[in-house]
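Tutorial handout. Part one gives the primary structure; part two gives the three-dimensional structure as tokens.
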Amino acid sequence: MFTGLIQEIGRVVRFDRQEKSVEIDVATEVIDTTELIIGESIAVDGVCLTVTSCSNKQFTVTAGDETLARTTLGTWKLHTSVNIERALQMGDRLGGHMVLGHIDGVGSVQSHRQEEANCVIVVNMDNTMLRYVVKKGSISIDGISLTVNTVDKQGVSVALIPHTVNETTLAKKEIGALVNIEVDIIGKYVETLLKGYKSSC
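Part two.
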């Protein structure tokens, strides 16, 4: 589990596409890779991946067909900048919201504009994800825990404070760029529980 508070912008330094998977090396500067444990989970652009090896200032992850199909990971290439967050430890502060790293789908950046000190970004997504989104609720975009400013039939808008602009990749995305979306898990649990309730009535 993660919080959506990005610890570092890393960089893809190897992208080895195989028949049904891809192996990726990510370079870091802030995260101490000597503390990483083989087999631990790490979020890269919001995607929960498993560390398969690590060395000084670099770690390796592998992704299979399902991950490649559901996320933006298949579009990465050498030098792609990615948001990194290590998994939450028991006793850590939950500063963002509960993020699982299980991507619900891919959205696209429709626009970004400056409003006073904040950068407002509009992201389009389909109804399979929008049905779980509420105004002032939480959403994870490329692994970043954000508050939904507005929501309509096409997508959502979020406001990035200067710290988020500087410490994540989202404000640097071009119009049309694809982003990983994870909706708040609470909405999906509620829907499942209500389905069970209705079927028993």
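Part three, for discussion. The first helix runs from residue 65 to 70. The chain is about 15% helix and 40% strand.
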